[in-house]
Amino acid sequence: MHNRKSGSFHLFLSVITTLGAIVAASVVAAQSADRPWMNPNLSPDERADLVLKQLTLDEKLALLHGNGMAHAPQWQMPLSHLTNGGAGYVEGVKRLGIPPLVISDAGYGVRDSGANGRYSTAMPSSLGAAASWDTDSACEFGTVIGQELRAQGFNMTLGGGVDLAREPRNGRNFEYAGEDPLLAGSVVGNLMKCEQAQHVVGDIKHYVMNDQETGRFFVNAVTSKRAMQESDLLAFHIAISIANPGAVMCSYNRINDDFGCENSYTLQDVLKSDWGFKGFVISDWGGTHSTEKASAAGLDQEQPMADFFGPKLKAALEAGRVPLSEIDDHARRVLYAEFLSGIVDDPPQKSVVDVEKGLEVAQRVEERSIVLLKNNSATLPINPSKVHSIAIIGGHADVGMISGGGSAQVDPPSGNAIMPPGKGATIWQKPVWFPTSPLKALQAKLPNAKIDFDPGTDANSAANLARNADLAIVFAYQWLAEDMDVPSLSLPDHQDALIEQVAAANPHTIVVLETGTAVTMPWINNVAGVVEAWYAGSSGHKALANVLAGDVNPSGKLPMTFPKSEADLPHPDRPSIPAESQARVADVADNGAPTSNASAHAGYAVHYDEGAAVGYKWFEAQKKQPLFAFGFGLSYTTYAYSGLSVDSTAKTARFTIRNIGNQSGTETAEVYARLPKGAGESFKRLVGWKRVTLAPGESQAVTIPIDTRVLQAFVDGFDGAKDFWNLAQGDYEVLVGSSSDNTPLTGSLQVQ
Ligand code: BGC
After folding, report:
1. Taking Cα atoms as reference points, which of 690, 688, 730 lies closest to residue 706?
2. Which of 158, 259, 282, 288 to mutate to test the pocket of ligand 1 (most atoms within 8 A of CB)?
3. pLDDT tens digit string along 169-213?
């Protein structure tokens, strides 16, 4: 109903609304006139420069260090409470609209959600993602993590591990993406590109040669420039060029004598000058050891404290030992990363994590990551018309699956599945099981089968259960965590003996591995099948049940070599710290890291004399047979390769793959190349791959670009002459097939 009174009220309202809109518009106009860096149409560089001009010295310096770490009593500072329960906090510049960095670890999911009363999805480990050889999966992996970081109030991640699995006993291999620079760089690059696209500052770590955890705070990784450039640095370069991350974390270890966070070769010469990295270098936590040296070498931000880049940096500036241009460069880089990643324009809003989405993506990624290593007489997939009883043994498979520890640890909902509720979910260096029971998932998948469980603690009892079942599945685990390496590649806790005994009792024994790196398998000839599930994440049990039951045809391939024994590795003996160095390590700084003094004298070095011959390259160069080769993985169907033609101008390999079995499947076709004869290099290098999905009988012609970045030789200029890359002229043998040791097609690439 309309009357005069309500009419004038509406008029009044619309006048007010219009006035309001005018005021708001002029505020925005005034704001962008006052704050031209808020104009999203300017480039991140331009915006960073504009802000930099406004900053006081103290505001600049505040961007260059952390303010402590939540949950770390030794790392507390006045602003530590602002970390949002995360790993770090860097002040922003509120008066100019520059947000603080609120930083969390997020290797395979957001860390410490349990301790902070929140929830996070655990994706399969990065090594698992690499086993999918699928950059789309990597992207989905990163997207979920980026979204969950934001939902939990973080705007920066500390994920993106891409150190090569050069040392298979490295306790952090599950955080990395295997042994090949092209595969690892592509997987981690896509993961971080998509994570940063959610508007969080991306990070790639631990730069560089952080290839073992033993003595990680001081070990000196000794290697030639060429070797490093063609292996670990190449992986970083590829990842960084794809992800364009806001940050790169320098590593704890030394590289050819200088610490990763004060190494002018790796930081200044390579990362910033040669590669043109425009973001900021963030130190690993407690990995800063100096002020002037680190600043000049290219470290931009100390974490998590301000021991070297706080008052000491200001004093060094005032005393003329550090130029203002250096401070400006550090600060500009932090600002650049903020604009680049979108956190200024689109700050995170805390919300509830999309649990369903996380579970769904985690399952899909894991389904593509599982690697079928052995499958005699088509024991898998489980055939319900033949298999009526199944003995499930070991690995706490009744309650869950294991996860990787350290700063990548994701907290399982309701705590560690093999400990009393509420205990242990966030314990450093204690194995944590997710409540993802493969037993329950298999029971749900095969409701008509009789499925029994034996914990495997008594091998005789387990063998008895297995003897009377149609199929036995032993779940075997190998737990890894940061700050430790495994003593050997043997399965721990007498699991080899358990498997032997079960296999002796039942010829239809399948071993499911939940491992974070390679393991040896002394029982391999006695079991019918082996499935590598890695650390399977929040939906690992469902993905695994789908593969075992045949609803999903496995398509993963190994991203690292599985050796027969440690004796075949470049460094057969476990890296250990000389007693003399151990003693000196006692000399530590307040922040828990060794002082530069102690470390400089620690004298503990690992000489990577194998150079760029990492993993399969080493095995090939040494003519050693691995247990399972890099790139290997079976399917429930079979593929045939034919008709290779190499186009030397377009630098592509073209061939046909045919599914000659009777099930649909996805095959990863791999392309390798060998340097021309004169190069004196005996191993091949992965130059490309493609995942191809084929129905039974279907064939497809595929064209795969040959990535010549990985075929170039790095030529060290020595004595001040310029280094350069050289793609040697000549005839490159091109090899195509299903794994690094099965390449039925050969051709040749001419480079003139
Ligand atoms: C690890 C990093 C991690 C940092 C913060 C360090 O000990 O090496 O990977 O991001 O801690 O938790």
Report:
1. 688
2. 158
3. 999 999 999 999 999 999 999 999 999 999 999 999 999 999 999
